[in-house]
Write a structure and sequence with these properties.
The chain is mainly alpha-helical. The chain has 7 helices and no strands.
């Protein structure tokens, strides 16, 4: 099994200015809704939240792609980074669908939330890309916390530590005997990386210094997301 990178659980971007406070307040409101609706049903929470989490990367990549075409300029690697983030978050969703089968009501919630969030985030990115990336950075901070709580549930036996789904073992290069706990560790490391990348993008847009060395390491992923036939 690959070694999952260390995750610094103490990382938090202290809000500086109105834009950051708006981003943090919006994130805390969504966290409250998730806590109220899902409580400790972490598998089902992951399914809905990962559906939302896969939206920002695609929106950011699309808008930056079109902007670079109009301005005939280089994207500084942002488009590929954001596209990869969107695919990574989608793989989180595909993994947790195998763990916690969503019922019809949850599928309807997913459809509704995705449409509303996509439109809202698209507009936000057009108005203030800095705020949009800061929102994602704070989202990912909360995701790291949620998956840490999920690990505690697994370790204390309140959630079953089932075998890791085959698609997860392939994508994160896990051993054949890997369990859900190994998957959650890998997903948490992914989220920590996205957290630092998006906070870095927001700070860069705000003209603030960015320390590339402070970005959490990314777990190794399979070059092809689907196992060979």
């Amino acid at each position: 099994m690959q070694n999952i990178p260390f995750v610094d659980l103490g990382v938090h971007h202290k809000p500086a200015g109105f834009s950051d406070r708006i981003a943090l307040g919006f994130t805390k409101m969504l966290r409250f809704c998730a806590d109220t609706f899902f409580a400790k049903r972490y598998g089902h929470r992951a399914i809905v939240l990962e559906t939302v989490a896969a939206v920002p990367g695609m929106v950011g990549a699309t808008i930056n792609h079109l902007k670079c075409l109009r301005r005939m300029c280089d994207d500084k690697g942002w488009i590929r980074t954001l596209m990869e983030e969107a695919e990574n978050e989608r793989m989180h969703l595909m993994t947790f669908i195998e763990v916690a089968k969503p019922n019809l009501f949850e599928r309807l919630v997913i459809m509704s939330v995705q449409w509303v969030f996509y439109v809202a985030f698209f507009i936000l990115y057009l108005v203030s890309a800095r705020t949009a990336h800061r929102v994602v950075g704070y989202f990912e901070e909360e995701a790291v916390i949620s998956y840490t709580h999920y690990l505690k549930e697994l370790d204390e036996g309140r959630s079953p530590n089932v075998p890791a789904p085959a698609n997860a073992r392939h994508y994160w290069k896990l051993s054949d005997d890997a369990t859900l706990r190994d998957v959650v560790l890998a997903v948490r490391a992914d989220e920590a990386h996205h957290r630092d990348v998006n906070h870095g993008f927001a700070s860069e847009l705000a003209g603030l210094p960015v320390d590339a060395a402070a970005v959490a390491p990314y777990p190794a992923h399979a070059p092809e997301i689907r196992p060979a036939a």
